[in-house]
Specification:
The protein contains 10 helices and 11 strands. The chain is α/β, with parallel strands linked by helices.
Length: 306
C-alpha cells in the first residue's frame, strides 16, 4: 500500500504515523478517516517529507486513496442528544475553539487595533522582527498576529488577564508556579488549575496523565487553556498541541527556552492558539525581544465595548 509522486513512493506507514499524531498513542488508526484528517495527513507528509510536496498520485493494484477513505459527516440535527453534546469528529472539536471572545483587556485592545489596521506606520526593524518570529515558528502573517512584549512576565500576565477563565473550565499548565503568571488569574476567576510535571510530556509514558486530563468531562467548550513548552532537543510537546485541540482545549506554546538556529519549528501543522518566543535583538538593548503570536482564527478580536 503506497502513495506515488513522480518517481518517489510514500509508504503507508507514514500515513498511519500522521494519523497517530492526531489520535494519540493509545488509540489505533483504522479507516475510514474524515476529510479534515485527510487534509492533515497531506500537510504532515508535505512538511516532514518535502520530497513529496509536489502532489500525491495513487498507483498500483493496492490503491490507497485518501479521498475515498473519507466518510460523510452526520448532521447534528439527526443525531441523538448524547452525540450532539460530544462530537467525535475532529472538525467539530476544532470549530468549538474558533472565535472565542477574550475578556476586555490590554491584549484585546491591541489585537483589535492590529486586526483593523488603519495605516499606522510600522518601522523596518519591526517588520524584520515580525518576519523573523514567523519564520522561526514556521507560521504565516495571514494566520497569526505578532505582538512585541516588554518581557516574558508581562506577556504571561496579558494572556492571563484576557483569557476567559471562569468556574467550570480549566487551566492545565506545565510551567512551574514560580514563573507562571497566568495561574493567579485562573485561580482568581475560580477556574480549576491543574499542575502537570514536565515529565508528562514524554510520549513514552503509557496511559499518559496528559491524555487523561485532556479528556476530563466538561460541559463547556472550549474546556480551557493548556500551557506547554518546548526546549532544545525535546520536540515531543508538539504532539500534545493536536491532542489538546482534539479535546477542545486552547493551547499556549512557550518556546522561549529554544535556541533558534537554522532549523525552524513546523507549527503550521499544529496551529497553537498562542506562541511565546524570544528573538535576539540586533538593534541594541534589551538583548532579547519577547514576541507573542496569536492565531487570528482562534479569538474574536471585536471588542465587546465597540
Amino acid at each position: 500500500m503506497v502513495f506515488k509522486k513522480a518517481h518517489s513512493m510514500i509508504p503507508a506507514h507514514l500515513v498511519a504515523g500522521a494519523i497517530s499524531t492526531l489520535h494519540g498513542l493509545d488509540l489505533r488508526w483504522s479507516g475510514p478517516i474524515t476529510p479534515t484528517e485527510i487534509e492533515y495527513v497531506k500537510q504532515y507528509v508535505f512538511v516532514k517529507y518535502p520530497q513529496y510536496c509536489n502532489g500525491l498520485v495513487e498507483e498500483g493494484h493496492n490503491k490507497f486513496d485518501l479521498d475515498n477513505l473519507s466518510i460523510k459527516e452526520e448532521s447534528t440535527d439527526s443525531l441523538p442528544d448524547d452525540k450532539r453534546k460530544a462530537p467525535k469528529n475532529t472538525s467539530s472539536n476544532v470549530s468549538d475553539l474558533d472565535k472565542t471572545q477574550l475578556e476586555p483587556s490590554r491584549l484585546l485592545e491591541i489585537l483589535t487595533k492590529k486586526s483593523s489596521f488603519q495605516g499606522s506606520f510600522i518601522s523596518i526593524p519591526e517588520i524584520q522582527a515580525m518576519n523573523r518570529a514567523l519564520k522561526h515558528c514556521g507560521l504565516s502573517e495571514k494566520d497569526y498576529l505578532v505582538l512585541f512584549m516588554p518581557n516574558y512576565k508581562d506577556a504571561m500576565m496579558m494572556i492571563g488577564e484576557s483569557y476567559p477563565f471562569f468556574r467550570g473550565n480549566f487551566y492545565l499548565t506545565i510551567i512551574s508556579e514560580e514563573f507562571d503568571q497566568i495561574r493567579e488569574f485562573a485561580t482568581h476567576k475560580e477556574s480549576k488549575v491543574v499542575s502537570a510535571p514536565e515529565s508528562w510530556l514524554d510520549l513514552r509514558i503509557k496511559g499518559s496523565q496528559l491524555s487523561q486530563n485532556f479528556r476530563r468531562k466538561c460541559k463547556h467548550s472550549p474546556k480551557g487553556l493548556f500551557l506547554t513548552l518546548c526546549l532544545n532537543g525535546t520536540r515531543y510537546s508538539l504532539h500534545w498541541i493536536s491532542e489538546a485541540h482534539r479535546n477542545s482545549w486552547h493551547v499556549l506554546l512557550d518556546v522561549t527556552g529554544l535556541t533558534f538556529g537554522e532549523d525552524r519549528l513546523a507549527l503550521a501543522l499544529h496551529r497553537p492558539d498562542f506562541v511565546l518566543c524570544l528573538l535576539d535583538n540586533t538593534h541594541g538593548q534589551p538583548s532579547n525581544i519577547t514576541c507573542l503570536l496569536v492565531r487570528r482564527k482562534s479569538f474574536d478580536t471585536t471588542s465587546p465595548s465597540a
